[in-house]
Write a structure and sequence with these properties.
The chain has 241 residues and is α/β, with parallel strands linked by helices. It has helices at residues 29-37, 49-53, 56-59, 91-107, 116-124, 134-137, 161-166, 226-240, and strands at residues 5-9, 11-17, 20-26, 41-45, 64-67, 111-114, 129-130, 150-156, 170-175, 180-181, 188-194, 200-205, 211-214. 29% of the residues lie in helices and 27% in strands. The radius of gyration is 17 Å and the shape is globular.
């Protein structure tokens, strides 16, 4: 049987190699490696304006969707003005990911949102974001060292999809972010919280399918089962297809 296909939406960043500097569609290799390690085929989806209107063009060729980390979600996407600490945004990526996420849920295609991807899943379903968590929790503990992931514990609701995916209800994770979920999107429920400050760490669609968002980075932890579970769900979907 062919491998289940996981669609990974790429970020748009300026990259350098040798004497060249170009705008690139890119994603850390840890994502595709995690998918491959779990037996899946990773397919990169660059932001494409046509997909905002016709997401089925991409979803017809994948068995699951992974919304990855990256730059801040454009505050205009959820009707807010930029915070002074907001980072550069790429609105086309937001539009495409929101359309893909909503349509994937309608099609019962498995969806996993990682860090920014969890935030995007929430926004796609009508939720909002806290643009700078330090304003509320009083510290930069979730993004304390630029370019480095920090370890901390999250507690996950018993019996939740998040707990089944992570494999335990108290879980040590790797994360780096300065934003988080504020108002929860329609049909989503919060099933994970940071032990230190109750920052929302996991959201999932209530009572149907596989739609999960985690604020941490499971692709950076070879022991994590989260992406493996997405690939397993994708395999089930592929068989049904």
């Amino acid at each position: 049987m062919s491998r289940p296909v996981v669609g990974l939406v790429a970020s748009v960043e300026r990259g350098r190699w040798g004497v060249w500097e170009e705008v690139c569609d890119q994603l850390p290799r840890s994502y595709s490696t995690a998918v491959q390690r779990a037996g899946g085929l990773a397919l990169l989806i660059p932001p494409d304006a046509a997909l905002a209107d016709e997401p089925d063009a991409a979803l017809d060729v994948v068995d699951s969707l992974l919304l990855s980390g990256g730059s801040d979600v454009d505050p205009a996407t959820y009707g807010a003005r930029p915070h002074p600490r907001s980072k550069p945004t790429y609105p086309l990526r937001d539009q495409v990911e929101a359309s893909l996420a909503r349509r994937a849920i309608e099609r019962d295609t498995p969806v996993l949102g990682v860090c920014r991807g969890m935030q995007m899943l929430n926004v796609a379903l009508g939720g909002t974001l806290e643009q700078h968590l330090a304003d509320r929790i009083g510290s930069e503990r979730h993004s304390h060292t630029p370019g480095s992931y920090g370890d901390h514990e999250v507690r996950l609701a018993q019996g939740s999809l998040a707990a089944r995916a992570a494999g335990e209800e108290l879980h040590t994770v790797k994360s780096h972010h300065h934003q988080g979920v504020d108002r929860v999107g329609e049909g989503l429920e919060v099933t994970g919280w940071s032990v230190d400050d109750d920052v929302v760490e996991a959201i999932e669609l209530s009572g149907q399918g596989f739609a999960l968002g985690v604020l941490w980075h499971p692709e950076e932890d070879e022991r994590s089962r989260v992406i493996s579970m997405l690939v397993s769900e994708a395999a089930t979907r592929a068989i049904a297809r």
